[in-house]
């Protein structure tokens, strides 16, 4: 069966902050100039914002530029930061660290939000401007013109059984063509992976570093609730050689006393016994935290990967027929623990470059390929405040890659960065990708974690149930192995099966073989919450995450 094809001026893959900001900016520019521009956006989640997860503490700079009247328009951005605290944790105590003016962790003027709600609101604004939104539509393949430029994307076929045969519900995917395609899939997007290789976009940058953020949303005792309070910590429960930290954000949401709590762990950690999910459970048991949760109720759970490489890891942003925006290339400001404002800004800047390209009367004759290359996007990004912001903190992450570990990073951030503000005459570099960092399990110490008490700490499967994740049990697997023999021969034999610990959703299990002779890897793909950690951290790079049917995956509500 042939695929039906549709054509737009601009196609955007991904309905997160960057994709929606790009769509909105494009329509704003076209409307102000009286031009007609067809902008289509596809999003794999069943609902806009359904796959969105972040802390989240929003720096409103990009939102101010996109919608100067966002307050009058009713944006769900209402909880201003009222207090800012930073602690170094030991097992039993909290040592306050002063936040001096200009330090990246300062949050004066920022807002605590539920990012999924902001994404829904942005989608409403985009639709009102004439953007065509297609939630529940998964882009599964990049399409190319004969000259090698990007032509658009194809959506995946649906209604296919595990064995590859069509079911009664079978529907052929469709092709979406555009003059320019913007890829804003989020961190470690499965299409962006293929673009990096085809166009060699990572040729002149460092390997990308990643972290995993594991988060819960709680309704707490009103007597302990402090709306607007932001708390960050470093130290316990992580050791000094593991990059990471925690956050506690108090927000008032429609009268409910909510606290967003999470742990972020750098995926360059070395000990295969480490479990990011259990690090969060352990963090909540600290004497300074446990009272907040003892009389509370956990109402949501989720996890996602995030880019940590920063300035040195930004790839080439454009290619014939398209460009990368948001977390696809990676614009997170790691010491700030913020990326929403930069993701939005990248989408807006890309929109300006794409609009200029498309409205140039000589665009077709200037272009060497059928797919237009918005070359000015990269130039405009380098002239933007996002670029200068990321450049100023470029050495923070690499400063942790010394024998001092955490202490070296804190020393750099607290002294060198505070004095020089990124003007030091050198740039630290990252040599290896995260999947190369694990040490053999026999060389590492087991990590002790608390047993779930179902009051403050919980087991993994009951947590996954809160994500609302869902996948058809009878469909081709979206978690594939390049070689079925590798999990037992390498991952289990050398590293003790780290998949079963780094996955925050219980997707991977090493179970006893039916014949009782050893173990085998069992993949519970229906549990997947689309965090991509397995694709990033697998030490053998044997796991390949591809997109399942549109509308599947987690169903986050304002995470």
From TrEMBL:
Uppermost EC category: oxidoreductase
EC number assigned by the record: 1.5.5.1
A GO CC annotation given for this chain: mitochondrial inner membrane
TM region(s), chain numbering: none
Keywords: 4Fe-4S, Electron transport, FAD, Flavoprotein, Iron, Iron-sulfur, Metal-binding, Oxidoreductase, Transport, Ubiquinone
CC cofactor: FAD; [4Fe-4S] cluster
Main function: Accepts electrons from ETF and reduces ubiquinone.
Name used for this protein in its record: Electron transfer flavoprotein-ubiquinone oxidoreductase
């Amino acid at each position: 069966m042939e695929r039906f094809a549709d054509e737009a001026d601009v196609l955007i893959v991904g309905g997160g902050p960057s994709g929606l900001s790009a769509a909105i900016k494009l329509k704003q520019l076209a409307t102000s100039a009286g031009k007609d521009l067809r902008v289509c956006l596809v999003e794999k989640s069943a609902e806009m914002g359904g796959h969105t997860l972040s802390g989240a503490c929003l720096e409103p700079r990009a939102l101010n530029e996109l919608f100067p009247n966002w307050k009058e328009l009713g944006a769900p951005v209402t909880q201003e930061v009222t207090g800012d605290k930073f602690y170094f944790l030991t097992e039993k105590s909290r040592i306050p660290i002063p936040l001096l003016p200009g330090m990246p962790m300062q949050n004066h003027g920022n807002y605590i939000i539920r990012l999924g709600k902001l994404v829904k609101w942005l989608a409403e604004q985009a639709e009102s401007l004439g953007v065509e939104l297609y939630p529940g539509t998964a882009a599964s393949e990049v399409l190319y013109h004969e000259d090698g430029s990007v032509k658009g994307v194809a959506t995946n076929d649906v209604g296919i059984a595990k064995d590859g045969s069509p079911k009664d519900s079978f529907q052929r995917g469709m092709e979406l063509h555009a003059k320019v395609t913007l890829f804003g899939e989020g961190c470690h997007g499965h299409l962006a992976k293929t673009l990096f290789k085809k166009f060699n976009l990572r040729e002149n940058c460092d390997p990308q570093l990643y972290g995993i953020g594991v988060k819960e949303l709680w309704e707490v005792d009103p007597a302990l609730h402090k709306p607007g309070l932001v708390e960050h910590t470093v130290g316990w429960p992580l050791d000094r050689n593991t990059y990471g930290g925690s956050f506690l954000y108090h927000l008032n949401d429609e009268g409910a006393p909510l606290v967003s709590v999470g742990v972020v762990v750098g995926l360059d950690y070395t000990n295969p016994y480490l479990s990011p999910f259990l690090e969060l459970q352990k963090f909540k048991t600290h004497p300074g935290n446990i009272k907040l949760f003892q009389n509370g109720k956990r109402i949501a759970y989720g996890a996602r990967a995030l880019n940590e490489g920063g300035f040195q890891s930004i790839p080439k942003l454009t290619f014939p027929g398209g460009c990368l925006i948001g977390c696809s290339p990676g614009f997170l400001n790691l010491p700030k623990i913020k990326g929403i404002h930069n993701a939005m800004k990248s989408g807006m800047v890309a929109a300006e470059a794409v609009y200029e390209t498309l409205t140039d009367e000589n665009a077709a004759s200037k272009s060497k390929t059928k797919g237009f290359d918005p070359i000015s996007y990269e130039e405009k990004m380098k002239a933007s405040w996002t670029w200068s912001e990321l450049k100023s903190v470029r050495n923070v992450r690499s400063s942790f890659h010394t024998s001092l570990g955490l202490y070296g990073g804190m020393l750099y951030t607290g002294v060198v960065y505070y004095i020089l503000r990124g003007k030091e005459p050198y740039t630290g570099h990252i040599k290896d990708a995260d999947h190369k960092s694990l040490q053999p399990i026999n060389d590492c110490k087991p990590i002790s974690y608390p047993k779930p008490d179902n009051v403050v700490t919980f087991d993994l499967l009951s947590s996954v149930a809160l994500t609302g994740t869902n996948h058809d049990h009878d469909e081709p697997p979206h978690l594939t192995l390049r070689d079925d023999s590798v999990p037992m021969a390498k991952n289990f034999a050398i590293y003790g099966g780290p998949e079963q610990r780094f996955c925050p959703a219980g997707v991977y299990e090493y179970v006893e073989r039916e014949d009782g002779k050893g173990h085998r890897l069992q993949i519970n793909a229906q549990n997947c919450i689309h965090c991509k950690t397995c694709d990033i951290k697998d030490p053998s790079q044997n796991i390949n995450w591809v997109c399942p049917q549109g509308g599947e995956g987690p169903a986050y509500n304002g995470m």
